[in-house]
Specification:
Layout lengths: L17 H25 L5 H23 L7 H25 L5 H8 L2 H12 L7 H18 L9 H26 L7 H18 L1 H4 L8 H29 L1 H4 L6 H13 L6 H16 L2 H9 L1
Helix pairs in contact: 1-4, 1-10, 1-12, 2-3, 2-8, 2-10, 3-7, 3-8, 4-12, 5-6, 5-7, 6-13, 8-10
């Protein structure tokens, strides 16, 4: 998951130092890139729904402890909590379930590469759905280039069949579309809640935890097989990947702005692919990194970053 949205207004507390922000940026990229490995390992002993349920509940507990320890302010506005419920569904519950299910059928490296489409999905949602951005012609071209990169990753010239891997790839794109919806929704409805990055992050993840708690009888009451690697993967996935890394990302967005912070997208696929190859013995086809590079080019164009760089150099 990557953040490309306008986040709630900064709280009265001072932002971390620039150096610590840079460290948080890199750490978030590494943790999120590793999350695909953690999910793959966890799926060897528990169901996809149990993976999503566990990571959300552990993330809620981790952030809840931090909120209590730091005595963070939480909003009393029912309207804001309703928006946080929507974000809990679209930012956590839906994409986590889709990613967990999909990784039964695709490698962790491929899942991490597809995750890089999140900024493209965000641009589409912000432009077409919520109308919070007006894109230039070159940015629309960037969206098209990003879609072309997805096609290269899927490699339809190898033959297209509705097998598990293709449906899983579509499911992952559904997950990144859900992330994109969430970022645009934040920008449209909760750009200023008065809460800190930690409190705001806890708010929507806690709402996701509430939803998963209600769904417990329907999703997770199935047999499990736990061992040390599975338990460690779940703890890291929940406490770090669904907890602390989200706060790191919110701090980065507030300090750097959404466009610069979204370059974390370039870290996560590299980490995901390398860990998949080194630890899980996964193989990488030539079209997957090539498609990822095309997606990255699409992101640069969609965010109008290339033009800004040319202007800055003149």
């Amino acid at each position: 998951m990557t953040s490309t949205s306008t986040t709630p207004a900064a709280s009265a507390t001072r932002l971390p130092s620039p150096r610590w922000i840079a460290v948080q940026f890199v750490l978030a990229g590494i943790v999120w890139g590793s999350s695909f490995l953690f999910m793959k390992v966890a799926l060897t002993g528990i169901s996809p729904a149990q993976v999503a349920w566990t990571r959300i509940l552990l993330g809620t507990l981790t952030l809840g402890i931090l909120v209590l320890a730091r005595r963070e302010h939480l909003t009393r506005s029912l309207r804001v909590w309703a928006h946080l419920l929507v974000l809990g569904l679209t930012f956590c519950v839906i994409p986590f379930l889709l990613f967990s299910w999909a990784q039964q059928h695709v490698s962790s490296g491929v899942a991490s590469i597809f995750n890089a489409t999140t900024p493209i999905m965000t641009a589409i949602m912000a432009w077409l759905v919520f109308r919070v951005e007006r894109l230039k012609a070159l940015q629309v071209v960037g969206i098209g280039v990003g879609i072309l990169g997805v096609v290269v990753i899927i490699a339809p010239w190898q033959g297209v069949s509705l097998d598990g891997s293709l449906i899983a790839e579509i499911a992952i794109l559904g997950a990144t579309a859900s992330y994109g919806f969430s970022f645009a929704y934040m920008r449209r409805f909760v750009s200023n809640t008065g809460m800190s990055a930690l409190a705001f992050t806890f708010g929507y993840i806690a709402m996701a935890g509430l939803v998963m708690a209600v769904l417990t009888p329907f999703l997770v009451l199935t047999p499990v097989r736990l061992d040390v690697p599975i338990i460690v993967s779940l703890v890291l996935l929940g406490c770090l990947g669904t907890g602390i890394a989200y706060v790191w990302n919110q701090n980065t967005v507030r300090a750097w702005g959404p466009t610069r912070a979204s370059t974390v997208t370039y870290i996560t696929p590299v980490v995901g692919v390398v860990l998949g190859v080194l630890i899980l013995g996964e193989t990488v086809s030539w079209n997957e990194p090539v498609g990822a590079l095309v997606v990255f080019l699409g992101i640069l164009l969609a965010q109008d970053r290339l033009r800004r760089r040319r202007v800055a150099q003149t």
